[in-house]
Every structure is written in C-alpha cells, then in structure tokens.
C-alpha cells in the first residue's frame, strides 16, 4: 500500500521465453571428448575470454612449441569466430605465448592450443592447467569486389612506422 492509502499494482511478471526467442539466444556449445576435458569458464562476470585447460601432461621445450589438447569440441554462433589468446600471467611469468588461434564457426573438431615457449627453460603443462583463453568475436564477411583504384587517404600507402613521423 502506498503512503497515501492507494493500493499499488503488483509488479508485472517477467514473461517466459517463447521457443522462437529461445532459439535466437546465443550459446557456446561445448562437447567433452574425454573425462580429462574441462568446460571453458570465465574468471569473472566481465572477463572477455573463457579459460581453456589442458587435458594432458605435455612438456613445452625451451625455445620450442607444443600442441596442447583440450579434449573439447565447440559450436559457436554464426557471424562469429573463436580466437585462442594467451593468458597474461603465463606470458609475463613464463614467456609462454599462443599461436594459430582462429576457430571458424563451422569447425567441429577437437580444439588444440599451440603454446610457444620463449624461455630458456622447459615448461611443464599438467592436466587441468589453464593454458589459454577462448574469445568469441563477431565478424563481418563482405563479398570481395575487384576495383581498378582505391580511394585516396591522407596516410596513403605509408606502411610500418609511417604514422607519427
């Protein structure tokens, strides 16, 4: 009841999602390929990426590289791609970087993470270690059109290091 004695209207209920609305929601669909697989998860509600974990014990040799299995397959929404990015802590503390990180929306195979070790010591990865992050990004894929000339800009064809001079 309001202070003036009038009755207050009850709050409207939140409507249930229709089947059509539910189909239009965006989900990251993940399939575990082994019992060692760990579902991707975000470290906080504002994290851009999902942590990816190793499903195996692997040694990344000093100044070398290794393919780390996650034992996961994913299905991402159309008009997106998944990008595998480094974890800043591994890069800063152990000189570990990630390579070849594009996963197309139509790929359904196992997800592997290529780790580069820029340090002078081997880096041991154990099952369950967080090794990279998966970032889902929207993309546009315009049709390609060949033209005779491009429009002019102030920068023009100035390449590496040409701005700010």
UniProtKB/TrEMBL annotation:
Instruction: Give the matching SUPFAM superfamilies.
Output: dUTPase-like
Going by the UniProt record, its keywords in alphabetical order are: Hydrolase, Magnesium, Metal-binding, Nucleotide metabolism
Coiled-coil region(s)? none
Matches recorded under InterPro entries: dUTPase, dUTPase-like, dUTPase-like_sf, dUTPase_trimeric
Give the reaction(s) catalysed.
dUTP + H2O = dUMP + diphosphate + H(+)
| Named cofactor requirement(s) | Mg(2+)
Enzyme Commission designation: 3.6.1.23
Purpose: Involved in nucleotide metabolism via production of dUMP, the immediate precursor of thymidine nucleotides, and decreases the intracellular concentration of dUTP so that uracil cannot be incorporated into DNA.
Q: Which family does it belong to?
A: Belongs to the dUTPase family.
Protein name per Swiss-Prot or TrEMBL = Deoxyuridine 5'-triphosphate nucleotidohydrolase
